[in-house]
Amino acid sequence: MITTNMDAPVPTRIEVARPFPPLTYLAPPGLQPGQRVRVKVRNAATLGVVLGPDPDPPKVKLRPVDSVLDPFPLLPPRLWELLEFAARYYGCGLAHLLPLCLPPAVEADWETLLPSGQRLGEAREAGRWDLLAEAGRAWHEGALALPGLFHRRGLRGAGLTEVRLTGQPHPARVTPAQARVIFALEGAGGALLEGPLLEASQAGASVLATLERHGLVARVRRMDLLSQKRELDEPDKRVELNGEQRQAVAAVTPGAFGVHLLYGVTGSGKTEVYLELAERTLAAGRRVLWLVPEIGLTTRLLSRLEARFPGRVAVGHAGLNATEKQADVLRLLQDDAPLFVGVRNAVLAPLRDLGLIVVDEEQEGSYKSEEHPRIHARDLAVKRGQLEGCPVVLGSATPSLESWQAANAGRYRLLRLRDRPAGVDLPTVKVVDLRESFKEERRKVVFSRQLLEGLGETLARREQSMLLLNRRGFENFWMCRACGRTFECPHCSVTLTYHKGAFRLRCHLCGYESVPPEVCIHCGAEHIRGVGEGTEQIEDQLRTLFPAARILRLDRDTTTRRGSLEAGLLAAELGEVDILVGTQMLAKGHNFPNLTLVGILNADLGLKIPDFRAAERTFQLLTQVAGRAGRAELKGRVLLQTYSPDHPAIIHAVAQDFEAFAREELPYREALGYPPFSAMSLYRSEGDTPGEALEPLRQLRLALETVPGLRILGPLEAPIARVKDRYRMQMILKAATRGPLGEAMRRAPLVPGGAVTLDRDPLSFGV
Ligand code: ADP
Ligand code: ZN
Prior knowledge:
By secondary structure, the chain is an alpha/beta fold. It is built from 23 helices and 30 strands. Strand 19 and strand 20 form a beta hairpin. The longest helix has 15 residues, at about 660-670. The termini are far apart. It binds adenosine-5'-diphosphate (ADP) and zinc ion. The site of adenosine-5'-diphosphate (ADP) has 14 residues, from helix 10.
């Protein structure tokens, strides 16, 4: 059937990235679900997503769409199914999910020729949606490659790809544009980044492509500058997999859905297993999605990947600028990079023909979004694997109890790696009972005698130490000794934290800050006392205790500038730091060959948080930090200071025994009906007064009371009852399975942008 631009526009349902239900516009016929359009909402231009024709349009004068951005849906059909699932599951609009898949500005010059010989751009301008739709179908089915589709001047690979001169052109065959490129390259000594080159030569990317085809230039993908400079980089170091690793690889059936939990301590060789599986998948012509919790801490992994799969890796880098991000997503759309590494949102990356999904450190909380839409990338990865019919591998040294229980129940397949290769031992962990230290010294102890001795010895041996305290600032809060009151944020119901370097009292929630007062703001007395040391104070005290040591503090306060965390970690890795002090950001994925002492200053901090996952989180954090010690030839040790040496999370962390921890924790969860033995939804609302915040939740409760199998807790004040002058209330829904929670969403659908928001499978309860 041929539709032409002569056809009249049709009413079309379009979801807009605004807090509204879908709206109906007049659009060219033949638009497909997933195509992006620009429309006006109350006279403001906004992005919209086509949902489909509207069979029953409202009886008013409909507005036309302003423009159609994509000639056909840019998302592979399987991914579109995943989005529809996610929208239903998390209670959000497709238009809210779309920006997570595609950078907002993916608009291109359509240069490619259609099979009919017409230029894509011309067809689009002429409104030949039929031709475009046809091309789109062919592209989706993989029958048509559109290498030039997204070539937009200066965009493709900008900043990431270097162009090098590799041959001598034949003078007679060079077009003026090609000549400009060659001159620009020669002028720059033979190589330039692609973006600046195209700029300088006023040439389009198709010119480069032609030159490349003729063997005159080569495009070389550049990795993160940081990883380029490193001396530590290994070339592709192929290892011979040991028996367990080979078994793990063999257990993963290519081309079939199945979830595998790869469980092994840090350094047991999980990454080698992923690499092997990825290689196998790429060799079969399929693509790999590889999720990591935090890309900033993954430079080593990226160089390992680039070494193994040169030029085939694209990176969804949270820290990249928009153009760079766009460049890598464009490579995916062009099928130019079959392996995509990225953080949370990468689970929605527009890769097609997936053959493998890897989720490394699957227990990490960063996979769950803290903002609307509150997706969980690990859970969506499993769903995506199911839709794509490909294996999913979740890896961890300390799996989430959700995944562990799924493996126990046989829904996931457990793959174990028991040993660290080649005689690398686990560090020894020793508990320092702070109650004993208190008795010994008759005052509160920050550094126990044992820890001070350990630090001294380690310094003397010219090895490295790392000290962890999960609290930043100098003093956690200030209190008046006379009236006993604390200094709180005027806008939030939390205390202010003292930052000595900045000489400010700061609110860690809203950023409010004030110059510290000299007398109590409540009673005027002069006896103000700081309570609860933070990393800034630890650094201060260390400088007094060990004046000759090179000390580096890494926490949110010292790493605000982009790249500063990476730079600090690199300095430590290169041996330029003797004592590293910081918050939990030190715990993750780093390899310090010379680190032999890890001190955990107060292992109990996380246990006090009123959350049923407090023990699990503490266990994970402690085990992870402990794993930092002694990865190379040097034997490591860990000193763990605690006031509660008998707590199961501490006992099992000391033994670094995840399975024992899970054995003790799971029955407790089951008895109390917590996940993984139940499912939860958290509804929140805010208001200018407590009553205003409460009302919509009260209404919601009335609507949901008759849903079978649902337990409703609340509405109640949120643990932090006020933030930025807004009062917060919450209500928790609990059920033995997910069914009643879905039923609740159908029974009382949330108005997009309404007073109530939903967090399904919440990881944080608003503390
Ligand atoms: P994990 O991902 O579990 O932390 P890695 O895969 O990074 O572990 O392995 C840790 C180190 O051990 C790496 O340097 C890796 O190259 C090496 N390694 C892993 N498996 C083997 C093996 N079978 N033989 C030799 N070295 C190995
Ligand atoms: Zn505040």
